[in-house]
Specification:
single chain, 544 residues, mainly beta, 16-stranded antiparallel barrel, 5 helices, 9% helix, disordered N terminus
Length: 544
């Protein structure tokens, strides 16, 4: 037994020696080194090196809930919503690499939101292709999914290329929750810009920007003819038409050529800005040039509404015009009142460039007209121009706005913003009078239908105020819980219009001895000179 045990142990030892000798002859494979994520401190907190590269990346985001109440005056049709809700998610990716030319940066921001109800379901976002509305019985016009590539730009050696905030803008609702005080705020547009830095805080930027996000429709009608008509949702078969007098070879007016006023993208907007930044705050002067254009005549009708062959008449062509705008802004830091306090002051003036002055910010953009709430007494008009039907020239509208916003920290955890803004919008009287003479788009002939002309809201000069305040609590870093209220009022700058809340769809057929509008039965129609509303919204927001 001892002999057997000795033989087994000896064999095992021999095998071990042989195996060890063979293993020593084989190459040894080393484990691949593990590259841990390294902190990148060159660009501030939150950046890390992308493994295997010299590029630093920061990932951040936002989660937000909002609920709001908006005053309304109508339950007819699709109206009646008073409450609205929104849940929003944001993802930011910020990549930076140091080069011999300076920092190479790429920044991307995605925003996704679910919106429902009054005011938070945005017609502006639908018209700008950022929102997709529900089409169900109970969801049409009150349910919307919002999808937006809010930012996607590259910055390198003074160049900015991609989707970014317009270089024209300055204040851009920085202290607001609802974000609809009067003033320019195009936070997402496509652009190519160069910024020259001169030192001591001075810089200048020249930016070539996508004109689509600055286009307000020209004044027109959805169908050829002079009856009032409009479109709720524009489609490929829809139109935006305005008449120009057609004459025969002898120069005698025989009808109207209806020109297509849908504006196409022919020339970019050109934006220039001069800026100064210092410890006390910043200042900016900016200017923009914006093209307004029209297409060909889509049809020619005689004054009775019959069709005329287009080759048999002579009409002035609707020529291209150029709108423009200028803006000045000032930001003053006021830490001597409380740390973090600041004051913004801004003013903007434009002709044929309403979206550069932001007169439609509260009521709604990318539409020729809208009321400030459901069942409003009248619609405000925002058209960049109306076409003179005699000579075919565009008569540009004029708008201007001023805004002031002050942010105050009551304590490090509690802060408030106080917002006040005012603006005016005016239209050329020549085009309105001449279009009225053709009974175009419900304006009414000032001679044959003086009541309809005098009490129509179309192309009426208006003024507008938006004022409000908010209170925000930040119990911990990057968490905001707040509420904001805004008041809006639109006033006619002269005369009155038929009150569409009390007499919806009514058009005067005459005037009584006192000059008041009457219907076919001789009953005096109610009128309005102003329309006001308010909006309250609360927010819970976490940035990370």
């Amino acid at each position: 037994m001892k002999l057997v045990k000795s033989l087994l142990l000896g064999s095992a030892a021999g095998l071990t020696v042989v195996a060890g000798a063979q293993a020593a002859d084989l190459p040894i494979k080393k484990a691949a080194p593990v590259e841990y994520v390294r902190v990148c401190s060159a660009y501030g907190a939150g950046f890390f090196f992308i493994p295997g590269t010299d590029t630093c990346l920061r990932v951040s985001g936002r989660a937000r809930f909002e609920a709001g109440y908006s005053q309304g005056y109508s339950r007819s049709g699709n109206n009646g919503d008073l409450m609205g809700y929104r849940g929003l998610g944001r993802l930011n990716l910020d990549a930076r690499t140091q080069t011999a030319y300076g920092t190479l940066r790429a920044f991307v921001r995605f925003e996704l939101a679910s919106r429902t109800g009054a005011y938070l379901t945005s017609g502006t976002q639908n018209r700008a292709a950022n929102g997709f509305g529900g089409v169900g019985v109970d969801t049409f016009g009150r349910s919307q999914q919002y999808v937006n590539v809010d930012k996607a730009f590259i910055q390198f050696a003074g160049l900015t290329a991609g989707r970014a905030a317009s270089f024209y803008d300055f204040y851009a609702h920085d202290f607001e929750i609802i974000g609809t005080s009067l003033g320019s705020d195009v936070s997402s547009t496509n652009l190519l810009a160069y910024t020259a830095t001169f030192g001591n805080g001075f810089s200048a930027t020249l930016s070539v920007e996508d004109p689509i996000f600055r286009k307000t429709p020209l004044f027109g009608t959805a169908t050829a003819g002079n009856a009032a008509s409009s479109f709720a949702v524009f489609t490929a078969a829809a139109a935006n038409l305005s008449p120009v007098i057609a004459t025969n070879a002898a120069g005698v007016p025989i009808g109207e050529a209806f020109y297509d006023l849908r504006q196409t993208s022919r020339m970019p907007d050109f934006v220039g800005a001069l800026r100064y930044d210092a410890a006390w705050g910043s200042a900016q002067l900016s200017a923009a040039v914006h093209e307004l254009n029209a297409g060909n005549a889509s049809s020619v009708l005689n004054f009775a509404g019959g069709t005329i062959a287009s080759g048999s008449v002579v009409t002035p062509r609707v020529n291209t015009e150029y709108g423009w705008a200028v803006q000045g802004g000032l930001k003053i830091n006021t830490p001597f009142i409380a740390p973090g306090d600041a004051l913004y002051l801004q003013g903007s003036y434009g002709e044929g460039a309403q979206l550069y002055t932001g007169y439609s910010s509260y009521i709604g953009s990318y539409t020729v007209s809208a009321g400030n709430t459901q069942g409003a007494q009248f619609a405000s008009y925002f058209a960049d121009a109306a076409v003179n039907p005699v000579n075919g020239k565009m008569e540009l509208s004029t708008s201007w706005t001023v805004v002031g916003s002050y942010l105050h920290y009551w304590t490090p955890e509690w802060r408030s913003a106080f917002i006040g803004s005012y603006g005016e919008m005016t239209f050329g009287r020549t085009s309105r009078n001449l279009l009225g003479a053709l009974n175009f788009n419900g304006l009414g002939n000032p001679v044959n239908s003086p009541g309809a002309f005098a009490y129509s809201a179309a192309l009426r000069d208006t003024s507008q105020i938006v004022v409000g305040a908010n209170l925000i609590w930040s119990p911990v870093k990057d968490l905001d819980i707040g509420v904001e209220g805004l008041y809006n009022r639109v006033d006619l700058k002269g005369g009155a219009v038929v009150d569409q809340n009390k007499a919806p769809g009514q058009v005067p057929v005459g005037l009584n001895a006192a000059g008041l509008p009457t219907n076919a039965a001789g009953v005096v129609l109610p009128t309005a000179k102003s329309a006001d509303t308010f909006n309250i919204r609360m927010r819970v927001q976490r940035d990370f």
